[in-house]
């Protein structure tokens, strides 16, 4: 009888271990084009998110750009990180499939980001942030610095940085141009308008369409206006003391960023005490997308080092 009991326990343990292994394996079988959208409650909001990749280390959270939903993540970058780490993207409050009304400030978005991370059960994460996502990440550092182990800040700048309030005018101008030319506004906002930049823009926008099923809800004009207002307000606020944060930071940008001026990347690199920087030539705001083949190994080395 005792032997039967022990054998039963061993069989249950083996089945549990096998199920866990199968769960981990299935997590790596997805690509960003196929990974399902999940939901979690935090701060009274139902957040939409996508999570996949190699588990075992602390996860990487992706903070997206202005007026971006889950479908605006570059699948090449997401899949490459997923091959090495668990990567998680999510919709901000009121964006895409996430409920609620868009936050009124960058600080509000940071509080939501913190709540989202804790709702998933994580006490520490790495962050990859692009554009407005970099603004939000800096506010997270101010509120809960121990939450972030490492941060990649791409196409972004510091609070109070010269030129950040001008994002509003640049965005509306390029949206108007995109309507006249029947193009996605990111074609103009993210890429310089020479042959190299235009080719990179077409390739990037094509990658964003690789997901064919279960795409996210489109971002409406209300969200765009609220986020632009939050960015302008944040750009006019007093600068943050970045020297207080000694976490490793990897800063990346193009050398001709029209949205968040490239000199602000150099400014951040000088003000963070433990920063490295990469400026990609002949590229704009979306430098990491144009140079994704170079950025990916640099980012992975930084995150895994």
UniProtKB/TrEMBL annotation:
<keyword id="KW-0378">Hydrolase</keyword>
<dbReference type="Pfam" id="PF00561">
    <property type="entry name" value="Abhydrolase_1"/>
</dbReference>
<dbReference type="InterPro" id="IPR050471">
    <property type="entry name" value="AB_hydrolase"/>
</dbReference>
<feature type="signal peptide">
    <location>
        <begin position="1"/>
        <end position="20"/>
    </location>
</feature>
<dbReference type="GO" id="GO:0016787">
    <property type="term" value="F:hydrolase activity"/>
</dbReference>
<dbReference type="InterPro" id="IPR000073">
    <property type="entry name" value="AB_hydrolase_1"/>
</dbReference>
<keyword id="KW-0732">Signal</keyword>
<protein>
    <submittedName>
        <fullName>Alpha/beta hydrolase</fullName>
    </submittedName>
</protein>
<feature type="domain" description="AB hydrolase-1">
    <location>
        <begin position="59"/>
        <end position="289"/>
    </location>
</feature>
<dbReference type="InterPro" id="IPR029058">
    <property type="entry name" value="AB_hydrolase_fold"/>
</dbReference>
